[in-house]
Amino acid sequence: MASDGKRLKGLVAATFTPMTLNSEVNLPIIQQYVDYLVHKQKVKNIFVNGTTGEGMSLSVQERKRLTEEWVKHARGKMDNVVVHVGCLSLEDAKDLAAHAASCGADAISAVSPSFMKPSCPDALVMYLKEVAAAAPSLPFYYYHIPSLTGVTFRVSDLTGRMKAHIPSFRGVKFTDTNLLDFSLCIHLYKEHDFLYGVDEQLLGGLVFGAHGAVGSTYNYLGATTNTMLTAYEEGDIEKARKIQTSVFLFFFHFFF
Ligand SMILES: CC(=O)N[C@H](C=O)[C@@H](O)[C@H](O)[C@H](O)CO
Ligand SMILES: CC(=O)C(=O)O
Predict the structure, then answer these.
(1) What is the ipTM of this complex?
(2) What is the Cα–Cα distance from 16 to 52, expressed in whole angstroms?
(3) Rounded to an integer, what distance in angstroms lies between the CA atom of residue 254 and that of residue 190?
(4) Measured between alpha carbons, how far is 114 from 157 in angstroms, rounded to an integer?
(5) Of 14, 35, 104, residue with least CA distance to 67
(6) The pLDDT of residue 2
(7) Which of the listed residues 16, 47, 51 should we mutate to test ligand 1's pocket, taking the one with most ligand atoms within 8 A of CB?
(8) 196 CA distance to ligand 1 middle (Å)
(9) Ramachandran bin of 144, using left for φ above 0, alpha for ψ from -120 to 50, beta for the remaining angles
(10) pLDDT tops 90 at residue 252
(11) pLDDT of 22-45, one tens digit each?
(12) Which of 35, 32, 100, 98 shows the shortest CA–CA distance to 66?
């Protein structure tokens, strides 16, 4: 699964972390989870230990064991395993990045530290540069999620700096409703991948040129969202809009 220059496209499911009733990570079920995503949801990329997987609430050891298991079972079945390695501790993030590389993950990603926040865009890039350098052979994706990190630097401001300072920088997982910032990134940095992360308005992201999408709902609405991607590609905007509307109505029904 080496990712020699291959671009991350299409849907990426942000995996949940299966737990046992004893609050241990449930590793034996991961093989079944991979098969379910590939066969039932037609989703062949995963984002492990992110927001949905509650990576920030897991121990470093749990995150490592999960990474090993996801990579092992995805091998030969999936296209990309992206491992989220962001932590409040830079040393832990570097440790997780190096571990992801040693397991054979395809890419890594990291959020900004969020308790002691970087004071300016350059400080954030210095942190991300060190994390990425711990796994220099893996494509690195900045994970922008200001609603949770409170770090609101515009991605269009950060991207040029990441491109200049992080040799493995490949793109951004962009979880924010600011489509102006998103579209500016796509316009300015055509050689990078910008993956949209607000599942309820992915259609808006597609119109502005999203290369793909990372999200929690692709665990269970992957097949449905794939039909939306196809409708959009075929120019059937009415159908795509209907599917997007059904997705957010479904979502609002259960979560609001
Ligand atoms: C805050 C959050 O978890 N965002 C996810 C991606 O980053 C999304 O996939 C959402 O879970 C999804 O859009 C539902 O609101
Ligand atoms: C949605 C997403 O990308 C995450 O859970 O991290």
Answers:
(1) 0.93
(2) 5
(3) 37
(4) 19
(5) 104
(6) 33
(7) 51
(8) 10
(9) beta
(10) no
(11) 999 999 999 999 999 999 999 999
(12) 100
